[in-house]
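To whoever is on call:

I kicked off a structure prediction for a single chain this morning and the downstream step that reads the tokens threw a length-mismatch warning. I double-checked the sequence; it's 200 residues and nothing unusual in it as far as I can see. Pasting both halves so you can look.
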Amino acid sequence: MNEIFCGTSEITGATFTISPMSDRFVDIILSALKEVDTSKVWMKTDDVSTCVRGRSEHVFDVVKAIFLNASIGGGHVVLNATFSNGCPGDSAGDAFMAEDSYLMNEERSQKINQEVAAQFALYPLGIPGYMNVIMDQIKTVDQQGVFSGGVHYASRLDGDANKVFTGMENAFDGARNSDSSHIVMTVTMSANSPSRKAGR
């Protein structure tokens, strides 16, 4: 078996699915996409999910904006996403790495007040001290005031969607700056759930 080395590209990618719990799901998703500027990322959608790739800050900017715009109508919407940096062989689409750091969707996203519940799990691959990296980044998320404690195989976050995304992005970036050469983060996020528990 050939040995696989993690790539040296700084590309961050996310594969995600937005699931509006509505028979109008097509209209909700398409309307959300119209409101989001994706000009600074590589993006492709198939019949299962959407893949976004580019500079880390633009990947998070686009995923957050699409989710927020899909949830703005008050219906129950769920996001399932996997973020990755340092994936072996990830080199296509490097042109988007030359983009500047200005976030195309942040101003509009900050105007959307949306409470969410989320579970996320961070996987710093390739290092024996991965648990230390995970615990350090949970402390980073806690600084946003959205950390609600651990659940099986993940951490629970509750609060304003912009703060939750900021916490997760900071944790992801912190892990990228560790000794790990490949970072993976999984996210499940829910907005406007009718089963949301009182007081959370």
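Update from on-call: the warning came from a stale cache, not from the record. Cleared it. Sanity check on the structure: The radius of gyration is 17 Å.
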